[in-house]
Amino acid sequence: MRIFASPGNPSSGRGVNTQIELSVQRVETRVARETPEVQAWAQLLRAHSALTRRFSTELLTMHGLTLNSYEVMLYLAHAPGRRLRRVDLAESVLLTASGITRLLDGLERSGYVSRAASEEDARVSYAVLTDEGYEKLRSAAPTHVGSIRELFGEQFSSDELETLAELLGRLHADAAAPDCEP
Predict the structure, then answer these.
(1) Any idea which fold 52-171 has?
(2) Which uninterrupted H or E stretch holds 127?
(3) pLDDT over 50 at 6, yes or no
(4) Whether the Cβ atoms of residue 92 and residue 73 lie closer than 8 Å to each other
(5) Is the model's pLDDT at 35 over the cut of 90?
(6) Which helix (H) or strand (E) is 116 found in, with range?
(7) CA distances to 51, 52, 62, 118, 134 from 138, in Å
(8) Is the pTM of this model over 0.85?
């Protein structure tokens, strides 16, 4: 929407038009922020940020794992032979190729993951969850899942949790995502 000063008035230069246009844009932006869709999106982002920070801090303090490390190890635990192509793992956990490399390098140094070459294609490498990594995941799972259950159980009724899961499931139905436990 554009509002212009009277075209017949010589004192109404472009500066006035620009100020009015900027004012209208600010109003339109504020109105857009107040729509239910944008409010829901903002709340989802805030909740995700707070929960990620909380659970990552908890896992790091109690088990020496980041939330990303836990998630990677969880995907590997659910994979056949506890191994996945590194590129597939990166896509599953929404990390860049360099991000998954750094994460897996750290997990390899800790002894939780090893690297395996493909027998069919030398260009392909796999991330493999070691027995030590599987045990680390198993020891962290009760704490992590317990915290999730405690937090969500305090905030929502069973019916609300079912509704929340169904609503969020509409946004991204990823059947490949594993449960939170190995």
Answers:
(1) Arc Repressor Mutant, subunit A (1.10.10)
(2) strand 125-129
(3) no
(4) no
(5) no
(6) strand 113-117
(7) 21, 20, 13, 27, 6
(8) no
Using DSSP, state whether 93 is helix, strand or coil: coil
* Helix (H) or strand (E) run with residue 151 in it: helix 131-155
Domain boundaries in the chain? 1-37, 52-171
Considering the chain, what percentage of its residues have pLDDT values greater than 90? 57
Going by the DSSP 8-state scheme, the letter that residue 115 receives in this structure is E
More confident: 26 or 164: 164
Q: What's phi and psi for 20, nearest 5 deg?
A: -65, -45
Work out the angle at residue 103's Cα, subtended by the Cα atoms of residues 165 and 109, and round it to the nearest 5 degrees: 130
SS3 26: helix
Cβ(70)–Cβ(144) below 8 Å: yes
Q: Which residues of 103-132 are buried (b: 16+ CB within 10 A; e: fewer)?
A: bbeebbeeebbbeeeeeeeeeeebbbbbee
Q: In this predicted model, what pLDDT tens digit does every residue of 86-121 receive, in sequence order?
A: 988 988 888 888 889 999 999 999 999 999 988 888
